[in-house]
């Protein structure tokens, strides 16, 4: 049975401030499925869930704001990030631009310290209790499971998920990559 497409995954850049050797964007069979599109041609209205991804979308805040400005507020908007650039101010900017979920990849050998840092920035921000945070940990780090799951059960605004290597595709998604990242091109 064909799965209904209800989710848009929009890659706004392939640039990243990390260079994970397992990155899905390095798999040629995945990369060839990215359909290039001009921002003005993206029909956000036909999707229930809108995943803004990359690369690292927080590397280009003006472009990110421009993309978010095209999405109506009654959509489930999920920002995918490695979290390195998340600060209280960025949380507030994202909340102000209609992001209601952030999916944070834990690409670090010290996930506990990193999660604690992110949570402290989040709690200091006006986005606290307004954006849900999902931390994604490689299943190889399940040994941290107990501590992080306890830590992340403090609030229903946080959760922890495990991801597997090479698990890069979802049946319910359209995947597009923005043509060019020069925001002047999108006027
Ligand atoms: S942080 Fe994400 S997008 Fe960046 S290299 Fe790692 S897996 Fe790829």
- CATH T-level fold name: TIM Barrel
Order of helices and strands: EHEEHEHEHEHEE
CATH class: Alpha Beta
Which sequence of strands runs across the widest sheet? Answer: 2-8-1-3-4-5-6-7
Overall mean pLDDT score? Answer: 91
What do you see in this structure?
It is a single chain. This protein is of the alpha/beta class. The protein has helices spanning 28-31, 61-68, 88-96, 111-124, 145-151; strands at residues 7-11, 35-37, 49-53, 76-81, 101-105, 132-138, 158-163, 173-178. The protein has one domain: Alpha-Beta Barrel (TIM Barrel), CATH 3.20.20.70. It has five helices and eight strands; from the N terminus they run E-H-E-E-H-E-H-E-H-E-H-E-E. The protein has an eight-stranded parallel sheet, with no helix packed on it. Bound molecules: iron/sulfur cluster. Residues 16, 18-20, 23, 25, 54-56, 82, 105, 107 line the site of iron/sulfur cluster (SF4). Iron/sulfur cluster binds next to loops.
TL;DR?
With about 190 residues, the chain is of the alpha/beta class. The chain is built from five helices and eight strands. It has helices at about 30, 60-70, 90-95, 110-125, 145-150; strands at about 5-10, 35, 50-55, 75-80, 100-105, 130-140, 160-165, 175-180.
Keyword list:
single chain; 8 strands; TIM Barrel; alpha/beta; 23% strand; 187 residues
Give the secondary structure arrangement, pairings included.
Blueprint: E1 7-11, H1 28-31, E2 35-37, E3 49-53, H2 61-68, E4 76-81, H3 88-96, E5 101-105, H4 111-124, E6 132-138, H5 145-151, E7 158-163, E8 173-178
This protein binds iron/sulfur cluster.
């Amino acid at each position: 049975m064909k799965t209904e497409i209800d989710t848009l995954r929009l890659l706004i850049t392939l640039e990243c401030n990390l260079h994970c050797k397992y990155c899905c964007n390095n798999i040629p069979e995945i990369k060839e499925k990215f359909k290039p599109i001009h921002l003005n041609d993206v029909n956000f209205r036909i999707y229930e869930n809108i995943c803004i991804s990359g690369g690292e979308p927080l590397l280009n805040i003006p472009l990110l704001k421009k993309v978010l400005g095209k999405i109506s507020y009654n959509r489930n908007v999920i920002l995918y990030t490695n979290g390195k650039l998340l600060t209280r101010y960025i949380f507030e900017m994202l909340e102000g631009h209609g992001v209601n979920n952030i999916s944070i990849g834990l690409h670090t050998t010290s996930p506990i310290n990193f999660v604690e840092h992110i949570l402290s920035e989040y709690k200091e921000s006006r986005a606290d209790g307004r954006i849900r945070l999902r931390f994604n940990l490689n299943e190889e780090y399940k040994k941290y499971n107990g501590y992080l799951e306890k830590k992340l059960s403090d609030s229903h605004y946080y959760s922890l998920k495990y991801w597997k290597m090479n698990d890069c595709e979802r049946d319910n998604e359209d995947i597009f990559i923005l043509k060019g990242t020069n925001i002047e091109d999108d006027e």
